[in-house]
Amino acid sequence: MENMQKIAQIIKSAKYLTAFTGAGVSVESGIPPFRGAGGLWEKYDPKFIEIDFFYAYPTESWQEMKKIFFSSMNEAQPNTAHKVLAELEEQGILKGIITQNIDNLHQKAGSKNVQEFHGTINYLTCIKCGARYPLGEVKLDSLPPLCGCGGVLKPDFVFYGEGINPQVYDASTMLALNSDVMLVIGTSGEVMPACSMPVLAKRKTPPAVIIEINTLPSAYTGVISDYYFEEKAGEFFAKLRQELKK
Ligand code: APR
Question: Which of 7, 114, 140, 227 has its Cα between 20 and 30 A from that of 154?
Fold first, then answer.
């Protein structure tokens, strides 16, 4: 097991600490991951969030999305991992987070510089007129939800077959290239192009120090991770918070 004291020292002396997060950082907030035990893709067919399926069958797509994303994510609260990351940003230590998550929990915890690589469930956009609505203003009683113009509303997260928002892509790339230390938390590291962000940080000169926290080894473990903590994100960050106070 790696030494928390050493990690706290690395983090305190980092010049540009960043974080790359995946679904695992929100599991202790009650949101299931996509892969591995209890993963969403073991139960559901991801086709419902393929963009062509959504345009062809908006009602079916919305029925699955409401069941799988909107119910669990709406109630979820940030856990210790989200909160400590926000505290590290507040202290000027963490410069930003690149997240693959759409659950808005980093922002709920107080993080400001959050690059949502896969967008967010927090807003919906009309596919006809482009009007944008905050989730709180949209009723999901009848599906699909409609814009005032009659057009179908689509959640602002990236569907399979859609591109990544160029501004977010660029900002995420800059975070990765500026990092001297990157925390890689709760991600299987399997989905491109998001999963290339930690690799960018590692492959640049000088390479970033990669500190990985995951309950299971990932595509990064033993490849680019310099430190690997095989434990829950919430538990790791509770210990780190204590160590940073010393
Ligand atoms: N603490 C830390 N890691 C955890 C925890 C936990 N409590 N629980 C699970 N994990 C780890 C799992 O071991 C796994 O490696 O989190 C990872 C979750 O992996 P995925 O479910 O593949 O999630 P992610 O890597 O974010 O997926 C990337 O895939 O389907 C797309 O768009 C979706 O953004 C998502 C992308």
Answer: 114
